[in-house]
Amino acid sequence: MTQKALADRLMDLCDQNAEQIAEQWYKSLITNPRTHAFRSNPKESCIRHAVFLFKNLRRMYFADNPYEDVIHILDATGYAEEQYGRSIPLAEAIYALILVRRHIWLYAESSALFNTASDMYPALQSTNRILLLFDYAIYMVIQKYEKMSNRQ
Q1: 18 with 55: CB under 8 angstroms?
Q2: Alpha-carbon distances, residue 73 vs 3, 13, 30, 37, 39 (angstroms)
Q3: How many CB atoms lie within 10 A of CB 45?
Q4: How confident is the model at residue 89 (pLDDT cuts 50, 70, 90)?
């Protein structure tokens, strides 16, 4: 039996451990000086958004049109609208997404997902693909914030 591709293993890891990764992310989020506004957000709301992203990472990662899939996932979770409604500054909403992205790799590293030299090239490819997905997510959140700001 052949070993699963690294990307598949990473997606499995995120899906199967979404709650644990989200808990670690939340602890980092509320203690980070760049995201102090999140301290007033309900924990359940924060965890829900992160879990949804971790569980849908595979769908976005392997999508034929990842840009459209990221839009769909962000619309489904209502992340931008909720943070805007809670008066979370745009910079903090974006930094929270950066922390989500970072925690994917921190969890993968702590789980020894990359354990051979032959894993390094696929790991780099996966890193680049996930960076692209979160670049799209950040762009979409900025667009939504601007749109909501213009309504007022």
Answers
A1: yes
A2: 29, 19, 24, 23, 24
A3: 15
A4: very high
Only one residue has tokens 């309504």, namely: 151
Given a cut of 50, whether residue 71 has pLDDT beyond it is yes
Residue located via tokens 């900025």: 142
| Distances in whole angstroms, Cα of residue 121 to Cα of each of 6, 28, 79, 118 | 10, 29, 32, 7
Q: State the amino acid at position 4 in one-letter form.
A: K
Measure Cα distances from 48 to 26, 72, 89, 100, 107 in Å. 10, 16, 19, 12, 18
Is the alpha carbon torsion for 86, 91, 94, 95 positive or negative? negative
CA 85 to chain centre: 20
Domains and their CATH numbers in the chain:
6-151 (1.10.490.70)
- Tokens read off for 65: 């049109």
Question: pTM here?
Answer: 0.87
**Greatest distance between any 2 Cα atoms in the chain:** 58
| Residue 41 contacts residue 93 (beta carbons within 8 Å) | no
Other CB atoms within a 10 A radius of the CB of residue 116 amount to 8
